[in-house]
Amino acid sequence: MAFGLKREELKRWKSDVKNGNIAFITHFWIDERFPDAKTVTKVGCADRDKLIEWGKQYGLKPEWIHQDPEYPHFDLLGERQRTILKAEGKTEQLTKFDLN
Fold it and tell me: According to the lineage, what is the superkingdom (predicted)?
């Protein structure tokens, strides 16, 4: 279950993904499979090859990409999430979701 996300933020992320940009969106998240995770960051790009290349720098494997036909994306959780958000300068997401 996702929450803590504004409709405009989601629309912008979807548009950026569809336009072939590497796009980030973070939201609160509850999933019993990951009881320690309170947030998730989705990093998407409709250009799958571009997304794979971007992910390589962080050790993300192509098989970890969610194969959504319109919005392929990686899900980032925990320390990897924090590390990548910091490296990418996504300070607003780090602050908003208290991930520092």
Answer: Bacteria
Mean per-residue pLDDT for 11-21?
A: 97
- CA 96, CA 26: separation in Å to the nearest integer? 9
Given a cut of 80, whether residue 97 has pLDDT beyond it is no
Averaged pLDDT, 37-55 = 95
Query: Residue 45 and residue 66: Cα distance in Å, rounded?
Result: 11
Neighbours of 76 (CB within 10 A): 23
Name the helix (H) or strand (E) containing 40: strand 39-44
Residue 12 is inside which H or E element, if any?
helix 7-18
Q: Is 27 left (phi over 0), alpha (psi -120 to 50) or beta?
A: beta
φ/ψ of 49, rounded to 5, equals: -60, -40
Query: What is the distance between the alpha carbons of residues 35 and 67, in angstroms, rounded to a whole number?
Result: 24
